[in-house]
Write a structure and sequence with these properties.
It is built from two helices and six strands, in the order βαβββαββ. By secondary structure, the chain is an alpha+beta fold.
Amino acid sequence: MRALITTRVVGVTKVPNNVSRLYAIRDALQSLRVAKLPPKITVRLVRAPQNPADENAIEVHVPPVGMIGWIAREKAAELAPYMDGKKGPYVVTAEIIDIPVQPEHLDNPGAVITVHTDVC
Protein backbone atom coordinates (compact mmCIF):
# COMPACT_ATOMS: atom_id res chain seq x y z
CA MET A 1 0.00 0.00 0.00
CA ARG A 2 1.26 3.50 -0.81
CA ALA A 3 0.98 5.96 2.07
CA LEU A 4 0.86 9.73 1.79
CA ILE A 5 1.71 11.73 4.88
CA THR A 6 1.86 15.52 5.10
CA THR A 7 3.88 16.83 8.03
CA ARG A 8 5.85 19.82 9.20
CA VAL A 9 9.61 19.99 9.53
CA VAL A 10 10.76 20.93 13.03
CA GLY A 11 14.00 22.36 14.40
CA VAL A 12 14.67 24.50 11.34
CA THR A 13 16.21 27.33 13.37
CA LYS A 14 18.61 24.90 15.09
CA VAL A 15 20.46 24.23 11.82
CA PRO A 16 23.15 26.90 11.12
CA ASN A 17 22.39 29.30 8.22
CA ASN A 18 19.08 27.56 7.65
CA VAL A 19 16.70 30.53 7.61
CA SER A 20 18.24 32.05 4.46
CA ARG A 21 18.27 28.61 2.79
CA LEU A 22 14.57 28.15 3.57
CA TYR A 23 13.77 31.53 2.02
CA ALA A 24 15.70 30.45 -1.12
CA ILE A 25 13.65 27.23 -1.24
CA ARG A 26 10.48 29.31 -0.79
CA ASP A 27 11.52 31.49 -3.77
CA ALA A 28 12.15 28.36 -5.85
CA LEU A 29 8.68 27.01 -5.01
CA GLN A 30 7.16 30.35 -6.05
CA SER A 31 9.06 30.25 -9.36
CA LEU A 32 7.64 26.78 -10.04
CA ARG A 33 4.12 28.09 -9.36
CA VAL A 34 4.64 31.04 -11.72
CA ALA A 35 5.87 28.62 -14.40
CA LYS A 36 2.71 26.54 -13.80
CA LEU A 37 4.80 23.56 -12.71
CA PRO A 38 4.08 21.41 -9.66
CA PRO A 39 5.43 23.34 -6.65
CA LYS A 40 7.50 20.51 -5.17
CA ILE A 41 11.18 20.19 -4.31
CA THR A 42 12.57 16.72 -3.68
CA VAL A 43 13.97 15.98 -0.23
CA ARG A 44 15.53 12.88 1.33
CA LEU A 45 14.42 11.44 4.64
CA VAL A 46 17.18 9.75 6.63
CA ARG A 47 16.69 7.78 9.84
CA ALA A 48 18.77 9.05 12.77
CA PRO A 49 18.22 6.55 15.62
CA GLN A 50 21.36 7.87 17.34
CA ASN A 51 19.62 11.21 18.00
CA PRO A 52 19.62 11.61 21.82
CA ALA A 53 16.40 13.65 21.77
CA ASP A 54 14.31 11.11 19.81
CA GLU A 55 15.14 7.51 18.95
CA ASN A 56 12.62 7.73 16.08
CA ALA A 57 14.27 10.85 14.61
CA ILE A 58 14.14 11.29 10.85
CA GLU A 59 16.27 14.03 9.27
CA VAL A 60 15.04 16.06 6.29
CA HIS A 61 17.74 16.77 3.68
CA VAL A 62 17.43 19.03 0.62
CA PRO A 63 20.06 18.16 -2.01
CA PRO A 64 22.45 19.98 -2.40
CA VAL A 65 21.62 22.29 0.53
CA GLY A 66 21.87 19.64 3.26
CA MET A 67 19.83 18.98 6.36
CA ILE A 68 17.08 21.50 7.10
CA GLY A 69 15.44 19.86 10.13
CA TRP A 70 13.57 16.81 11.33
CA ILE A 71 10.16 15.23 10.77
CA ALA A 72 7.81 16.17 13.60
CA ARG A 73 8.12 13.70 16.49
CA GLU A 74 4.60 12.25 16.20
CA LYS A 75 4.97 11.53 12.47
CA ALA A 76 8.51 10.19 12.92
CA ALA A 77 7.14 7.68 15.43
CA GLU A 78 4.74 6.46 12.71
CA LEU A 79 7.34 6.28 9.92
CA ALA A 80 10.41 4.97 11.79
CA PRO A 81 9.20 1.36 12.18
CA TYR A 82 8.69 1.06 8.40
CA MET A 83 12.07 2.57 7.65
CA ASP A 84 13.78 0.35 10.22
CA GLY A 85 12.28 -2.81 8.75
CA LYS A 86 14.55 -2.65 5.70
CA LYS A 87 18.13 -3.98 5.45
CA GLY A 88 20.75 -1.28 5.93
CA PRO A 89 20.01 2.44 6.11
CA TYR A 90 16.78 3.27 4.31
CA VAL A 91 16.19 6.60 2.59
CA VAL A 92 12.74 7.76 1.51
CA THR A 93 12.20 10.49 -1.07
CA ALA A 94 9.62 13.15 -0.26
CA GLU A 95 8.81 16.69 -1.38
CA ILE A 96 8.70 20.12 0.22
CA ILE A 97 5.34 21.58 -0.70
CA ASP A 98 5.39 24.82 1.29
CA ILE A 99 7.60 27.16 3.32
CA PRO A 100 5.05 29.07 5.41
CA VAL A 101 6.17 32.36 6.94
CA GLN A 102 4.17 34.26 9.52
CA PRO A 103 4.75 38.04 9.42
CA GLU A 104 5.36 38.18 13.17
CA HIS A 105 8.01 35.42 12.91
CA LEU A 106 10.09 36.24 9.82
CA ASP A 107 13.15 34.74 11.53
CA ASN A 108 11.42 31.35 11.93
CA PRO A 109 10.03 30.06 8.62
CA GLY A 110 8.50 26.62 8.59
CA ALA A 111 8.62 23.79 6.08
CA VAL A 112 5.86 21.36 5.10
CA ILE A 113 6.60 18.10 3.30
CA THR A 114 4.68 15.19 1.85
CA VAL A 115 6.04 11.67 2.25
CA HIS A 116 5.25 8.81 -0.12
CA THR A 117 6.23 5.39 1.17
CA ASP A 118 5.29 1.77 0.74
CA VAL A 119 3.98 0.27 3.96
CA CYS A 120 3.35 -3.44 4.33
